[in-house]
Amino acid sequence: MRYATREIRLASALVEAADTLGEGFEATRYLQRVSDHCVELLNARAAGVMLIDGSRSVSLAASSRHEQVALDLLEAQHGGGPCLDSYGSGEPVPPVSIRIAHAAARWPDFTERALGHDIVTTFAVPLRRRENLLGALNVFVPTLPDTTQADDELHVAQALADAAALGLQNRGAYAQYRDLSGQLQAALSSRVRIEQAKGMLAERWSVHADRAFMALRQYARRHRLPLDQVASAVIEGVEDDAELRRESHGNADGPA
């Protein structure tokens, strides 16, 4: 029954991890929720995520439970630790006894701090989406490793990490497409304003539309202004019509 309950909670956590396309998404808060689920599902003291780019930590997020402990242990890994090992290999770091690792001088700075926080065991899994490694999820446990459950715990942590990696990747793609859409919309709106201003001037001056456009463009260049800004001034009726007319006359030999 206990395992069935955990499976339900894990399923709920994975669904939540997939929801990254809503408004107000904030990566640190999102990864904190992933870490919170990890703590709850694995009976850990704390957990945290280290996002890594080229072996350099770029962002940290920790569970709300014992958040400062998790952040301290993540920060202690600048000289080596479970996160960097998992990220470097692309594979999980199975549960490790902190005392044994410390006695063997494995991750000395990290294990020293872990002992100070009464952490007995740690393990880590990579945040990855296919071949794309984003970082690692680190779990901090107050009890000795249970060899009978080690694989199960790694699988649970890896499922959460995989879901988080997928969620972050989807969010990144969504943000890129949204930015591109905004840029295309801005370009289209700018083109519409330029065409509108060109038509207004051509009608006002009784000249060909090409002559009006050349006047707009020459005025923008001379005053080092965006063409769209000059067009907007024409539409709003705040442009210097006399100077624009001079630009039109100056291009009298241009295309008609």
Task: Write a brief caption for the model.
The chain is α+β, with helices and mostly antiparallel strands. Helices cover 61% and strands 15% of the residues. The protein contains ten helices and five strands.
For the secondary structure, the number of strands is 5
Identify low-pLDDT runs.
252-256
Q: Per DSSP, what share of the residues sits in E-state strands of 2 or more residues?
A: 15-25%
Spatial sequence of strands, sheet with the most strands:
2-1-5-4-3
Q: Rounded to an integer, what's the Rg over CA atoms?
A: 30 Å
Q: Give the SSE order as H and E letters.
A: HHEEHHEHHEEHHHH
Q: What is the helix tally?
A: 10
Could you explain how this protein is built, in words?
A 5-stranded antiparallel sheet has the order 2-1-5-4-3, with helices on both faces. It has 10 helices and 5 strands, in the order H-H-E-E-H-H-E-H-H-E-E-H-H-H-H. The chain is an alpha+beta fold and 256 residues long. The chain is 61% helix and 15% strand. The protein is elongated and about 90 Å long. The N and C termini lie far apart (84 Å). It has helices at 2-18, 27-42, 67-75, 82-89, 98-103, 108-116, 150-205, 209-222, 227-236, 241-250, and strands spanning 46-53, 56-62, 93-97, 121-129, 132-141. A hairpin with a 2-residue loop joins strand 1 and strand 2.
